[in-house]
Structure formats: C-alpha cells, structure tokens
What does this fold into?
Amino acid sequence: MPDLERPQIYLITPPELELSSFTNVLSSVLDANTVACIRLALSSEDETHIQRTADGLRDICHARDIPLVIQTHFNLVEKLGLDGVHLTDGSKNVRQVRKDLGSDAIIGAHCAISRHDGMNAAEAGVDYVSFGPVGHTALGDGKTAPLDLFQWWSEVIEVPIVAEGGLDEKTIASLSEITDFAAIGSEIWSADDPAKRLQELAKILA
It folds into this structure.
C-alpha cells in the first residue's frame, strides 16, 4: 500500500452492487477524495460475477494509481490483474499466500480483536493487519476492538494497522492518531451522496 501521511482512507466496496451504476458512484468518490487502497468485498461466490466486477473496477482504480485488492479469493489475484488480497481468517494462510503471490502482492489480514493473531500475521509477512469491528455492527458476536489495542500496536509494531467496522465520527476521531488506515465502506454507501459523506469523515481523520 502507498506510503502516505497517515491516517489514510481504505475504501471497501458494498457486498452487493450493480456494476453499471456503481462505477459512476465510485468514480465520483475517488475524484472527490484521497483513497489509499480499495477492497473488492463481494458476498457473491460466483466467479463470473466477481470477475466482471473486478474488471469494471480495476481500470477505475488503476487510472488513479489506487491499488485494488480482493477479499478472500487469493486464487483470483493474478488472474484478474489485482494488486493483492485481504484475508479474513487472520494469520492462518498468510505464509502460503505470500509464497503463492510473491513479494510484490499486497497481503492484509483481518484479525478481529486478537492481538496475538495480529502479531502472528505480522511475523508471517502481511503488509497490514486490520482489527475490528471498532464500533457495534449487526455482524459478529458483539465484541469490539478496544482503542488500547490500536494504541499499543501503533507504539510497538511497525506493520501498518487498519481500523474497520462500525466507524462513526466519534470512533474516527478517537482513532485519528493511533491507526494508519480507516476502512470505510457501509459508512458511506447508504448516504445520498457517498462522495460528500466520505469527505466529512476524512476531515475528522485529518
């Protein structure tokens, strides 16, 4: 991921999207905001649908020099010309995926609220570790990643850290000095103007 002043926006696509309309929405969001990386995070397991969506978003991202990573499907990274993968099972498969994709690929690992799993992922060679949810969401078991986890990580571990899940103005403000990236997705896509909504959240980070 780009070595930019922190914290930066890490954008997550909706789990379901209509490609013909979403490409315009995404373009407007990227033209109005500085985004460090984008995660294609579809709920679908249909490879044809994933490929079609990746093809539609890849050119938009790469035209703006923004890397596009895919959630979970590391076997599709090279096939679809993507920049890397976001693994959702912590440190479990990091070493093998790094071996398969090589040193140039971006590999991130979501480690929920586990400091231990995050450290294992960092040692295994990820480019970033994400923790979350930070705020309460409808998904998961109700547990949230505490701010002191981000504070400790930012002071002790060199591997970049991503905060995600249930971010709002209050949590973003609390994280602004202790995270490298804020992963924003559902927080903006339901807004009438996603580009404007992201601008509002980005101002808090700044």
